[in-house]
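Input record (Table S2, row 525):
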Amino acid sequence: MTLAADLVRALPGLRASDDLAERVSYARDLWPRHHLSVRAGNVARAMPGCVVWPQTTEDVARLITFCAKEGVPVVPFGAGSGVCAGILPEKGAVVLDLKRMAKLRAFDVARPTVTVEAGYMGVPFEEEMNRRGFTLGHFPSSILCSTVGGWIAARGAGQCSGKYGKIEDMVADVELVTGEGKVRLLHHRTSESGLPSLVPFVIGSEGTLGVITAATLRLQRAPTARSYAGYTFPSTEAGWEAMRAAFQAGLRPAVARLYDPFDAMLARMGSVKKHGDVKKSGKNRAVGEALLRNALFGPKLLNELVDGPASPLLGGALVIVIFEGEGQTPTTEAEECQRIFERGGATHLGEGPARKWMLHRYSVSYRQAPVFSGGMFSDTIEVAAPWSKLGALYDGVRHALGDHVFVMAHMSHAYPDGCCIYFSFAGSAGDGDSWDEASEATYDSAWSAALAAAVAAGGTIAHHHGVGRSKAKGLGPELGDPGLTALAALKKAFDPHGIMNPGNLQPAPRPDPYAPAARPHKVSS
Ligand SMILES: Cc1cc2nc3c(=O)[nH]c(=O)nc-3n(C[C@H](O)[C@H](O)[C@H](O)COP(=O)(O)OP(=O)(O)OC[C@H]3O[C@@H](n4cnc5c(N)ncnc54)[C@H](O)[C@@H]3O)c2cc1C
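Output record (flavin-adenine dinucleotide complex):
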C-alpha cells in the first residue's frame, strides 16, 4: 500500500496522488539554490510521498488528525513561490496544496473586512476586492504566483507597504488547523479585547504550527487618484535620508523605492525585456555567458570598479514615489514630498521613472533561468533595520556579500522608524570540471557572510521572504536563547507531535538533502 492509497482509504473523498510528476513538482519552492542542484542533475532528491488537495477545513482537519496519529509529516503548500526553502518535503511527507480552498466566505462592509480561504491566488483576490470598491493593499511582486495563506505564513510585504503596511497589519482573524487536527479560530480584535492575541504567533509561522485554512483581512477603499514622481540623488545615502525625512514628516507614499547607482542604471535602461526581445545566435550567447561567468568569478574587483572609477558614469541613485488616495490628496502629498526631497539634494525627473516602474511592476524578477543555465547564479536577501542602523547594515551586508558575489541594492519598503534593504547578487565559480560544487560553495559562503553581517549590524535577517531553511543559520544569533525557547514552546503547544513542516524555521536544519556528497541523483519512482 502506498501513502496515497492509505490516505484515500482512511479519508474517503480526499483527492490524493503519488504520481511521480506530481511528487517532483511539489518537491521544492523557488529557493535559488534548488536551481543549482537541478542544474547538477539532482532533480528531486527529497520528494514527498504524496500530494493532497483538500477542499474544506473539515478535509484538512481529518487529514491532520490522521497524520498526527500515524506520525506522517505534513507540508502546507500555497503556490510554491517562496524563495527560502520553506518547502523541502522529506520522503514520506504529505504535501497539502491549499489551492482548491479558494472561496470568499464573508464580506463585511461596515468593518470593512473580507474572510477568505487560504488558497485564493493573489491577482483574482485583489481583482475581486476592486470590483467591490476595496483593496487589501498587498501587492508582492509574486502576486501572480502566490496565495493569501502563503502571504500570511511567510509574513510578506507588498510593493505598497509604505501606505498599507505589511501583511501582519492586514490580518484580523485566522482559522488554523493545528498540528493535532483541531480547528481554532484565532481573533485579533484590537478594538474589543485586552487579551493577548494568538494571531501574531501564526503570522510568519511558515507551516510549522498548523495549516492556515482561512483569514479575515482588513480592507481599505480602493484609491481613485495617484501621483507619480522620480528623483536622482547624488548618493544612495542622500536618497535614504530624504526618504526618512518624508516618512517622519508624516507622508505615506504607497510606493517609495530607492535604487543604488548600479541598480538605478539597470532600472533606467529598463532591465525587463520580454523573452525573445534579444535575438542572439547560440554562439554569441555562449560567448556572452562565458564572459559574464568569468567576470563574476572576480566579484570583488567588479564591486570595487562599480563603487570607484565607474561610479560617476552610472548617474547617481534613483528614487521613485507614488502617492495614492482620493481627489487632490495624492498631488498635495507629492508636492510636499518634492520639497523635502529637494532640500535633501534631489533633482526632480518628472513622472516618467515611476510610471515606467508601475508598468513593469510584476515582470521584474522572472528572468532567472538564463543566468542559471549560463553557469551562474543569482539571488536576493532582504534585510531591515531602524534608520539609525541602516548605514551600518548597508555597508556591512554589502561588503560581506561583495567578497563572494557581485552585489547591488534597492530599498523598497520604508517606514517612519526604519527601512528594508533588498540586495540582489550574482555569482559564479568560473569554468571547470566541478563548477557546480564550487558554485554551491560560493553561494553558501555569500549567504553565511550576509546573515552574520546583518545580525552584527543590528538588523533583521528577514523582512518579507521568511526564514525557511536558507536563513536558519541566522535565526539563533538574531533571536537569542529566549527567542529560540519561545519558538520551541509554541511548536510544542500547536504541534505536539512535530508533524508540521519538520526542519523548517528551526535554528539547526536537518542535513541538506542537496549536499554534494548526496549527488549524483536522478529521479526514480
Ligand atoms: C519573483 C518573486 C517575487 C517575490 N516578491 C515578493 C514580494 O514582493 N513580497 C513578498 O513578501 N514575497 C515575495 N516573494 C516570496 C513569496 O512569493 C512569498 O513568500 C509568498 O508569500 C509565498 O506565497 P505562496 O502561496 O507561494 O507560499 P508557498 O511558497 O507555497 O509557502 C511559503 C511558506 O508558507 C507555508 N504555507 C503556505 N501556505 C500555508 C498555509 N495555508 N498554512 C500554513 N502554512 C502555509 C509553506 O509551508 C512555506 O513554508 C517573491 C517570490 C518570487 C519568486
